[in-house]
User: Which sequence fits this backbone?
């Protein structure tokens, strides 16, 4: 008997007797003999609770987390402070352990929390309709593509190179399935090339995808860029960072048909990438094409206010192959965490946080930009993240900085070969002025050291080269 | 029944926005410490927001009270029996929550240099290896975020596999008993669904399968199957099914929603499946969270491996006395690409590894054995008395981890729909089984007790069903108007679809 089962030998015997079989093996007799495993699983024996904790704690020790080092890495997920009440509330059994609220009479807590979350996300994005959350950011972008194809009966997407590389790649992966063409538009001075975008959008375009702030941290002029989408009847899909929506003009006021994004900064820990949630908001026109669960307000037979899953006729468990999306299990608990965090920040706090991010980011950018061997990658306005270029090999510089207990940023080289010398630096309210000053100092020293090394190496190489010639 | 309002019913729902009052707040932010320039000096005014979003203004004590109050309006697994078919509502060990919350896991940035995230990558590798052994397939990708995401991955892998062989196939076969996500994923992946009929034993109707394949074998991309299926029975013809699909060069996809029935007893890979998704939130104890998060890793055969999503966690053997190391392999030229950001729902992986380490190989088998024992026992209990008459089992044979009853006689004889029975069960403190699924069974009730329930719980549930049927013989309206004791009573779901109100007007 494992510690999570209760059946004693007596229980088992009584149950077997009631069933009328001699052993549990008889119940598995319906599996044809050649398909039975016939041996124990080749996995270690079970461990006690303390031993499991010990083993996993030892593994966790081998990770340099944001408590062990100062984290300036962002790229879509950020080291924000998650208030204690988020843990307290999301760890309550009543929120942690139920299934999707198929029985609304006994799921009012979860359903109302979804309704509140939808209201909050609608406020943030300036669009009237929000769902209760999707898996995470990049797959939400792909879901928007599927929606746009259904809405426009077109199958061509135009996407800015400023959209998160994971989102672009996910959209491309999905597009192979649902049969869409993806056209990418480049960046100019850190922001989407407006002329190239206008040229790329045509009457066959189902959707135009932008991100603001974009992956390089630049705040895009969504309204101006979106005009091309409007002109050709394509949907305008805008990915955004929720933490900037207290100060940046909401996508809904910039003409967006869909606003979505990675929700992690709101009430969710880093968790090495998940679980978090994706948010997804749209115009009224798209409500019946939305992916995911949506809570709606209604009344019970006695006229009491209540909440249910609304518009279930869009969903896979009702519509099967005609569903607007295949999503079933989403991220209800993560969305609840976001709602609690937003309530904790409140109207004033949320705006103040946005201001704090912008000001500290401006300070950090100025400070780093002034370091010898460090240049700004672009001069476009930024909100909470910015990109720099280093005069020395990025990997080696980051290694040196890491030795001083700082994760300096996200190297751009893999996804932007044109910025092989680029690093993305992110700011949260946890990154103090002192930490920013230290980063500037350590980064400067690292670049200087690597530059010396680099020069020395090139000289060696050229000497070798000359010798060989 | 006297309709006195319970205290909770008397307390009308009020949202957190309605409790807001200007000037109140909870969280305090650190001082800026840097020059407090006007925003418009930093970002052009036209890109700035004029009015902050109307978030609630409320102090911490009232936020806590609000959500505690809401939580009491939820039924949950820790409060009682939750035999929701196909959902595997097994106990969620709290140890798993504790280890997932360790800073080394919870505060690890997903873009951390793999050299400084070796513990996390080793944990992922450990999970891959464990799932590979459990599924009987050599390769695993942890990337999909849920079962339906795994299905989509499997179909995109199928497409890539055929494309690599110079083929474009158009049809995906799925039984009429399949989960709704199956056909929805098929459409999203750009395929057409072809339904396959069910035979009198609850398995795939072989003649129909043959006919659907023979129609145009070159069009068959894949067959998606759940085994044991949604009727809770194991399809004995699976070996033949596999050979038919493989003869047509299609792939065989295993919907792992029902894996909890067969862990350590039988493996999808050995049954002939090429691609399997595993719902970590079902068989591997990740809490369901009221609708997520979950995770839907996939295990695949050698021929599918080249197309797996990237990046992939790979173990490199150490040299010069160094131990093994773990890397994220992005260089996978035939990969279908990414399905999401970063590496997947790592927090879910931690919980699943904790669960697998806790149970071990033997414990996992015992979990499945007990799940099957509990299901068969409850099935027998519900075959007695009134339930046996009014709620006959849809396919009368030993079941696996779940079984399906039909409320057709109950409806005909007592005028009680399955929905009425479900709602009345709420008054008895039980979460009802899954209702009206699978579609094949009239007035279906799909019951999955899981291994973590006691015999006493199963008995109590059977007795509650018996009592409800008995009282319905006297007064069917009692169930038809149920529930009475829940925070709200039966809700108008039609209205929420016809005139959806999906946010609060402020």
Assistant:
């Amino acid at each position: 008997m494992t510690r999570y089962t209760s059946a004693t030998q007596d229980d088992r015997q009584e149950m077997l007797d009631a069933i009328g079989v001699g052993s549990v093996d008889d119940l598995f007799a319906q599996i044809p003999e050649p398909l039975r495993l016939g041996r124990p699983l080749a996995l270690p024996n079970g461990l006690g609770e303390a031993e499991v904790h010990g083993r996993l704690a030892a593994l966790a020790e081998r990770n340099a987390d944001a408590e062990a080092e100062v984290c300036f890495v962002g790229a879509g997920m950020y080291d924000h402070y998650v208030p204690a009440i988020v843990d307290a509330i999301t760890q309550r059994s009543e929120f942690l352990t139920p299934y999707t609220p198929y029985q609304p009479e006994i799921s009012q807590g979860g359903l109302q929390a979804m309704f509140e979350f939808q209201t909050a996300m609608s406020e943030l994005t300036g669009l009237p309709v929000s769902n209760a959350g999707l898996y995470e950011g990049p797959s939400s972008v792909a879901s928007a593509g599927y929606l746009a194809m259904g809405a426009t009966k077109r199958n061509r997407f135009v996407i800015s190179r400023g959209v998160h590389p994971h989102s672009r790649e996910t959209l491309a992966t999905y597009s192979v399935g649902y049969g869409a063409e993806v056209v990418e538009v480049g960046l100019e001075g850190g922001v989407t090339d407006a002329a190239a975008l206008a040229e790329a959008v045509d009457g066959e375009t189902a959707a135009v995808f932008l991100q603001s702030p974009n992956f390089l941290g630049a705040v895009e002029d969504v309204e101006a860029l979106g005009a091309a989408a409007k002109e050709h009847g394509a949907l305008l899909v805008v990915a955004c960072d929720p933490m900037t929506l207290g100060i940046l003009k909401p996508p809904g006021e910039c003409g967006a048909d869909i606003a979505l994004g990675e929700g992690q900064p709101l009430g969710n820990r880093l968790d090495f990438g998940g679980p978090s949630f994706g948010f997804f908001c749209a115009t009224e026109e798209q409500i019946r094409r939305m992916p995911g669960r949506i809570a709606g307000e209604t009344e019970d037979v006695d006229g009491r206010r209540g909440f249910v899953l609304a518009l279930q006729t869009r969903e896979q468990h009702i519509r099967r192959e005609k569903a607007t999306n295949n999503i079933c299990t989403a991220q209800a608990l993560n969305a609840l965490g976001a709602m609690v965090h937003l309530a904790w920040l409140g109207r004033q706090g949320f705006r103040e946080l946005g201001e704090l991010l912008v000001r500290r980011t401006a300070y950090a950018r100025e400070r780093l930009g002034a370091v010898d061997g460090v240049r700004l990658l672009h001069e476009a306005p930024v909100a909470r993240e910015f990109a720099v270029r280093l005069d020395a090999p990025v990997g080696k510089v980051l290694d040196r900085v890491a030795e001083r207990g700082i994760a300096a940023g996200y190297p751009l080289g893999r996804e932007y070969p044109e910025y092989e010398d680029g690093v993305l630096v992110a700011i949260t309210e946890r990154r103090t002025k002192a930490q920013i000053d230290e980063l500037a100092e350590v980064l400067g020293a690292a670049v200087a050291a690597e530059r010396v090394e680099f020069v020395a190496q090139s000289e060696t190489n050229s000497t070798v080269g000359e010798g060989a010639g | 029944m006297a309709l006195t309002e319970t205290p909770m019913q008397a307390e009308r729902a009020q949202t957190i926005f309605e409790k807001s009052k200007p000037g109140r707040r909870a969280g305090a932010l650190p001082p800026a410490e840097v020059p407090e320039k006007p925003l418009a000096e930093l970002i052009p005014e036209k890109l700035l927001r004029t009015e902050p979003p109307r978030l609630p203004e409320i102090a911490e004590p009232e936020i806590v009270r609000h959500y505690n109050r809401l939580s009491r309006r939820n039924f949950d697994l820790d409060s009682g029996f939750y035999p929701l078919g196909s959902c595997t509502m097994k106990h969620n060990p709290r140890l798993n929550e504790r280890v997932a919350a360790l800073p080394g896991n919870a505060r690890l940035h997903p873009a951390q240099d793999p050299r400084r995230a070796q513990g996390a990558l080793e944990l992922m590798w450990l999970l891959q290896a464990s799932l590979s052994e459990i599924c009987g397939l050599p390769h695993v990708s942890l990337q999909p975020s849920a079962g339906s995401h795994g299905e989509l991955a499997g179909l995109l892998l199928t497409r890539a596999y055929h494309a690599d062989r110079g083929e474009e196939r158009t049809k995906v076969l799925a039984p009429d008993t399949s989960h709704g996500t199956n056909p929805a994923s098929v459409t999203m992946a750009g395929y057409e669904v072809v339904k396959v009929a069910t035979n009198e034993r609850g398995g795939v109707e072989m003649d129909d399968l043959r006919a659907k394949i023979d129609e145009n074998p070159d069009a068959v991309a894949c067959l998606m199957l759940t085994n044991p299926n949604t009727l809770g029975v194991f399809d004995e013809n699976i070996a033949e099914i596999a050979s038919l699909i493989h003869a047509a060069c299609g792939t065989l996809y295993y919907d792992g929603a029902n894996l909890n029935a067969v862990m350590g007893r039988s493996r999808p890979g050995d049954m002939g499946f090429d691609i399997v998704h595993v719902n970590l939130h079902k068989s591997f104890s990740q809490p369901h969270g009221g609708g997520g998060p979950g995770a839907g890793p996939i295990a695949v055969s050698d021929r599918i491996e080249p197309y797996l999503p990237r990046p992939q966690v790979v173990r490199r053997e150490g040299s010069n006395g160094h131990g093994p190391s773990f890397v994220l392999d992005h260089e996978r030229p035939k990969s279908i690409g990414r399905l999401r950001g970063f590496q997947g729902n790592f927090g879910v992986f931690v919980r699943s590894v904790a669960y697998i380490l806790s149970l071990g190989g033997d414990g996992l088998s015992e979990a499945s054995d007990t799940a099957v024992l509990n299901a068969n026992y409850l099935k027998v209990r519900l075959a007695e008395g009134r339930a046996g008459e009014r709620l006959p089992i849809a396919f009368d044979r030993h079941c696996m981890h779940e079984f399906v009853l039909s409320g057709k006689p109950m409806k005909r004889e007592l005028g009680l729909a399955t929905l009425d029975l479900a709602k009345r069960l709420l008054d008895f403190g039980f979460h009802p089984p899954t209702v009206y699924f699978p579609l094949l069974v009239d007035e279906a009730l799909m019951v999955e007790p899981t291994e973590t329930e006691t015999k006493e719980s199963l008995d109590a549930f059977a007795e509650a069903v018996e009592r409800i049927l008995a009282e319905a013989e006297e007064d069917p309206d009692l169930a038809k108007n149920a529930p009475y004791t829940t925070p709200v009573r039966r809700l108008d779901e039609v209205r929420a679809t016809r005139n959806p109100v999906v946010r609060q007007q402020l």
